[in-house]
Amino acid sequence: MRIITGKYKGRKLTAIGKVEAELYLRPTSAQVRESLFNILINGSLGDVVSSARVLDLFAGTGALGIEAVSRGADCACLIDAGQFASKLIQKNINILGKPNNICFDRLDACALPRNSGLPYGLVFLDPPYGKNLAPKALTSALNQGWIAANGILICEENCKVPVPLGFEFIQTRKYGETVITVMRAEHHPDREMPQYFCL
What we know:
By secondary structure, this protein is an alpha/beta fold. It is built from five helices and seven strands. It has helices spanning 18-22, 30-42, 63-70, 83-95, 134-143, and strands at 53-57, 75-79, 102-105, 120-125, 147-157, 167-175, 178-185. Strands 3-2-1-4-5-7-6 form a seven-stranded mixed β-sheet, sandwiched between helices.
């Protein structure tokens, strides 16, 4: 797995082993990453990557957040609670030379603490497929101040994600079994977000 373009173009990230794959670590494929960043840089939203503060929830290997920084994002915070994911992310940050604008926090994306820093304007959400973790993570991130008003959120699942209260639907794209839902945060932390389930 390599970074596609930008500052870290061609940099080879740590490979996923069999054990990690069995633990639901599923890196976004190069094809999907390329298509996704085309939407975020050249699509109807304009360029929402350059100078963005990026939050990568269920980061896995950290490839999406790292790709965003490679393409001009100001910084990326990579979050994952898994033991294997934590090791992979730290290895990948080391591969890049430990840049000070990419950080990792071992946190549960579904039970985030209050964000003590600035909120993030571009959020990637890539939970294990079919486990219904996206609603909890969205609620947690929004209510704890991690998502900026009008922030763009990208949710990767194996089904179309109904847009929760507090978010505005932008578009959905399907790549094989991967479905990307693009939303915009309206940022109303006092609203309760309903749960939804993938069928």
